[in-house]
Design goal:
It is a single chain. This protein has one domain. The protein has six helices and no strands. Helix 2 crosses helix 3, helix 3 packs across helix 5 and helix 3 packs across helix 6. The longest helix has 19 residues.
Length: 114
């Protein structure tokens, strides 16, 4: 159950999202022209992808460590929808870096079914 502390953290996350350009990034990611399945060697060079990956990986870390209620986050963002649009980039970067933990918190958030 979300607390007032969770709400405070969420508001700070919303502010960070606003200042980091998350709204524009999500608009780009959900644009029908966006390449959901990039070239396998894609490095995530699209700034919108980078913003989305960083934001939701951070949110996932906050959830993982009990700082933010996962249900509150899912009530605010369509995490699975964003992951479906950027996961190919995240997985390509993970493979390129040979780092299985890269974006694992975002991926875990997206798999959460509530």
């Amino acid at each position: 159950m979300a607390t007032y502390e969770d709400a405070s953290v969420l508001l700070q996350l919303l502010q960070w999202g606003a200042t980091s350009g998350l709204e524009d990034a999500l608009r780009r990611v959900f644009d029908p022209a966006f390449a959901v399945h990039p070239d396998p060697d894609a490095s995530g060079g699209d700034p919108a992808v980078g913003v989305a990956l960083t934001f939701f990986e951070t949110a996932g870390a906050l959830v993982k460590h009990g700082v933010l209620d996962i249900d509150l986050l899912h009530d605010t963002y369509w995490v699975a929808g964003v992951w479906s649009r950027v996961s190919a980039y995240a997985l390509a970067m993970r493979a390129h870096a040979s780092e299985p933990r890269l974006y694992e918190n975002f991926e875990a958030l997206a798999r959460y079914a509530g």
